[in-house]
Amino acid sequence: MYPSELKYTKDHEWVRVEGGEARVGITDYAQKQLGDVVYLELPEVGRTLKKGEVFGTIESVKAVSELFSPVSGEVTEVNTALAQRPETVNREPHDSWMIVVKVADAADQSDLLDAGQYTELTQ
């Protein structure tokens, strides 16, 4: 159910690390818990994040939730198209990246979950 090429956090973000950059979004589980997503607040390019720091918020018809960075580093890209069409998160959660972070410390990835571990967490 969860793509094996992604890693996951206990806060329900997914991360794909390639070439020192981490692409971040929320999981299918998270979007189902939220319901219909209506608004995203994402950081500015250039912002430096620490692992576990709030990088934005996601608002649904049910609630407003914080988004947590799975790694430390500098935000190099923000998906502005997603911010304009936040409902895309509900249709394609594992293809709807929110930010790209230039990873400052590869050790940050040591406690990320694989697809099997994340499936166990959400059952």
Description:
The chain has 123 residues and is an alpha+beta fold. It is built from 4 helices and 9 strands. It has a single domain, classed as RNA polymerase II/Efflux pump adaptor protein, barrel-sandwich hybrid domain (OB fold (Dihydrolipoamide Acetyltransferase, E2P), Beta Barrel), CATH 2.40.50. The chain has helices spanning 28-34, 80-84, 88-91, 115-121; strands at 7-8, 13-18, 21-26, 37-41, 48-49, 54-60, 64-68, 73-78, 99-103. Strands 1-2-3-9-8-5 form a 6-stranded antiparallel β-sheet. It has a 3-stranded antiparallel β-sheet with strand order 4-6-7. The mean pLDDT is 96.
List keywords for this structure.
alpha+beta, 123 residues, 6-stranded antiparallel beta sheet, globular, 3-stranded antiparallel beta sheet, OB fold (Dihydrolipoamide Acetyltransferase, E2P), single chain
**Fraction of residues in H or I helices:** 10-25%
Structural class: alpha+beta
Class in CATH? Mainly Beta
Tally of helical segments: 4
What's the architecture in CATH terms? Beta Barrel
CATH superfamily: RNA polymerase II/Efflux pump adaptor protein, barrel-sandwich hybrid domain
Which residue ranges are poorly predicted, with pLDDT under 50 across at least 5 consecutive positions? none
Order of helices and strands: EEEHEEEEEHHEH
Under CATH, the topology is which? OB fold (Dihydrolipoamide Acetyltransferase, E2P)
**Sheet with the most strands, sense and barrel status:** 6 strands, antiparallel
Mean of the pLDDT scores?
A: 96
Radius of gyration: 13 Å
How many beta-strand segments? 9
Q: Tell me, what's the shape?
A: globular
How big a fraction of the residues is strand?
35-45%
- The number of domains is 1
Strand order of the largest sheet: 1-2-3-9-8-5
Distance between the termini: 12 Å
